[in-house]
Design a protein that fits this description.
The protein folds into 2 domains: 66 residues, Orthogonal Bundle (Arc Repressor Mutant, subunit A); 96 residues, Orthogonal Bundle (Arc Repressor Mutant, subunit A). The chain is built from 9 helices and 6 strands; from the N terminus they run H-E-H-H-E-E-H-H-E-H-H-E-E-H-H. It has a 3-stranded antiparallel beta sheet with strand order 1-3-2. A 3-stranded antiparallel beta sheet has the order 4-6-5. Strand 2 and strand 3 form a beta hairpin. It comes from Candidatus Nomurabacteria bacterium RIFCSPLOWO2_01_FULL_33_17. Keywords: Cell cycle, Cell division, Chromosome partition, Cytoplasm.
Amino acid sequence: MSELANIIVGILFYESDSLKLEELVSLTGKKEDKIKEAINEISEIYNTSNSSINLLSHNDSYQFTITGEARDLIMVRDAKERDGELSRAALETLSLIIYLSHATKNEIDYIRGVQSSYMLRVLVSRGLIARGSKSGNQTIYIPTIETLRFMGLEKIEDMPDYEKIHNDLSVAAKNSFIISE
């Protein structure tokens, strides 16, 4: 596999959402034609082998997906998680999104100090957060009405020490933007 294809594989595994061609160009600094060549190479490797991972591509957007028996096993596990209690990490991620009123994955990762793709997927699948419009190349995650019901709140501002924590986290979120530039 070429170096560029290998880099794109890593980027796509890291992201929980699909990435547009322009985003891959921006992230790698390579031209569109080189990205498309690498995508074709990745597709040949993953989509033609007996792999449980496939590369989806639609309208110049790309995302890895799980197929076959691995997909079935993950779906069973995800169903258990949707129906069970939220983990501490999921509650932490949800709290950040509530206090910030909206947040990008990079902001959440920066504040938590760990990668949050899985937690975001769990919270989206439960309807506790939603994907909002994009901010640049980043999807924004927002609380839903189900969040209020789950937390027993009438409005987001009813969270304990909302103003102070909101302001503190907003400063931290801005720092993540400065660092990521």
